[in-house]
Amino acid sequence: MVTSQRRSPDGRERITLREAEAGLVEHYTALVRLAYLTLPPTLSRHRRVLTAHGLVQRALPGFRLRKAAPRVPAQRPGPTRLGPERLGPAWVRERVLRTALAYERRPRRWPKSLPPPRALRPMLPVVWGLRLFPRAGGREEIALGQALSGLSADVRAAFVLSRADELPDAQVRALLEAAGVGHPDRSLRVARQLDAPAVAAAQTLLRSAEFNACSVQTRPTDLLRRRQRCRLAGAVAAVVAVGAVVLTATGSAPDPRSARPALGPVTAADLVRAPRTTGAGASRADFTAWPPRGVRTRDRDLLDRALATWSRPPRGTRLSRTPDTFTGPPPHGTQLLYAGEVAGDAVVLLHDGLRTVRYSEPLSPGGHAKLHFARTDSSDATTAAALVVSRTRGAARYLTAPWIAASATRDLLRPDVPARPVRVSAEGITEPLRGPAASGPCDSWPALQLRSSARAVGQRAFLVTDLGDLVPAHLTYTPLPGRGTPARQPREATGAAALASWAHTACHLAGLPEGVRAVNVSDFAGQPLPGGAGRAVWSCVRADTWRGPDEVSVRISCPRPVEGGRAP
To answer: Do 384 and 373 form a contact (C-beta atoms < 8 A)?
Structure first.
């Protein structure tokens, strides 16, 4: 609490340097979070982390300050929901907010191709040879980034103050007004109008230990490129001296790549790469736990071509997508899953939290690039267990998840035939596996049987099958309820009863729409047929799609053919 009232002639309260320092130290993490989320989302995560820390560390007054510090808004009378706030934290928050809002402001006639003037100034801390970034927040971070990317800086600040810091509306308006926002009421109103998923994502992310702009991970920059630059610097020392003068005048950056204007599209340097240790011991089993694999994960030219084609497909590109899949450009935070060579094509798999995109281009001259979009939001250990990396001549190759320990293939129409093991490369790519026949009689239906590692998500086996999409559909089974017992829950379709039921249902999968996420066969009733012809089972076949709507059908199956070859 403020022990004494110190007001300047204009009615604003004054604080001491010791109070400002105490407020900065006590609320350093929250201030860095406020600056990090208020800064332009077009900045790389490395640049935003350093800039956010620099803004907060420069919030204290300079050395020429006497004991009386600058001004803070006079406190309005009356308690708030959070109680009265001390002057030190309030003044530091206002100063951080003011500098963060002014970061992307451009003077009149300033070239749009150049960064804002503040982005060209040298600012501590400076990190050489390393790139810093917060821990990946998964789907919540991507959803929050997409929600804030289309907002102005003042609206982003209002969203963080009201949703993350949970300040009352009156205090948020006062802070925005003190920071130089012209219409604080409009900024707060727009922030309040964000949709419920964005608000839920923000509250889940910002209160979790996964996302913290003060707890960062480090990764070296391109070591080979650094060696080449060192050799070039030794050969042309005079040019380096001139370049040092230029960098001193314009403001040097830790990494030359991050000194470029970060207002363009996503490039290979911006891709998120999950650590390789997340495969077996990750707390989340979805596509965010996939580390980048393939022999061309460091091929910047290939990755840049894939991202450029995604952003703006050139003429001749063959586009395809599952229904209701957004085909907009890649957002910042897009994750690299795979980059390699498969069946004569260079293939890149990318994931942005809501979609998985497969880019392929022929290795030989001629031909056109292909781009396929698929919905993969809210995936889990089974629906994120494999991706179709290539499909040629009716056979598909799958890239299995890092938590898959064994793979096999089996024919659903022949439940008594055991599954055959499948060869899998060191990258996790299976051998070519024949898919269901596109036309003609349904005499077989191949399925992929996967077994997860016990260290990852618990050892279990499950079935998936190729329905023409990028992600194979997960197959489950619900057995008949016992007498006097409620309906049972779906289980994996690997037991004898499940395989026998699927043998009567597999051929019906050909009539399902695109974008099927999972299919469950639920046996809900059984009755004897007249004349001792056998027992008929009534089943409900439910196909869940990635876009939401379900396809439901009811069928009857007879284990043994009845007289005349027809069921009654």
So the answer is: no
Q: How many Cα atoms within 13 Å fall on the side-chain side of residue 140?
A: 17
Q: Are 398 and 472 in contact (CB under 8 A)?
A: yes
**Residue 505 near residue 445 (C-beta atoms within 8 A):** no
- Give CA–CA dist 337/494, Å, rounded: 29
Tokens of 111: 């070239």
Q: Confirm if 59 and 31 have CB atoms less than 8 A apart.
A: yes
Q: Encode 244-290 in three state secondary structure.
A: HHHHHHHCCCCCCCCCCCCCCCCCHHHCECCCCCHHHHCCCCCHHHC
Spatial separation of the C-alpha atoms in residues 420 and 495, rounded to whole Å: 16
Helix (H) or strand (E) holding 526: strand 516-528
Residue 41 pLDDT: 74
3-state SS class at 158: helix
Distance CA 411, CA 419 (A): 8
Residues in the chain, overall count: 568
**Which of 161, 145, 204 has its CA nearest to residue 27?**
161
The neighbour count for residue 198, using CB atoms within 10 Å, is 18
Phi, psi of 18 (to 5 degrees): -65, -40
Helices first, then strands: H and E counts in the chain: 14, 21
Distances 442 to 254, 305, 378, 567 between C-alpha atoms, Å = 61, 40, 32, 20
d(CA 131, CA 445): 48
Mean residue pLDDT of the chain comes to 76
Helix or strand run (H / E) with residue 80: none
Q: Average pLDDT of 134-163?
A: 72
pLDDT band at residue 68 under the 50/70/90 scheme: very low
Residue 210 has pLDDT above 80, yes or no: no
Most confident range (mean pLDDT) of 242-251, 435-444, 445-454 is 445-454
**490 pLDDT more than 80:** yes
Question: 249 is written with which tokens?
Answer: 């005048």
Strand partners, 477: 491, 521
* 432-437 long-range contacts, CB within 8 A, separation 24+: 432/343, 432/392, 432/395, 432/396, 432/397, 433/395, 433/396, 433/397, 433/398, 433/409, 433/466, 434/394, 434/395, 435/391, 435/394, 435/395, 435/396, 435/466, 436/465, 436/466, 436/509, 436/510, 437/394
What does the pLDDT read at residue 102? 78
Q: What single letter denotes the amino acid at residue 551?
A: E
Predicted pLDDT of residue 473? 94
Amino acid identity at 229: R
pLDDT of the residue at 178: 83
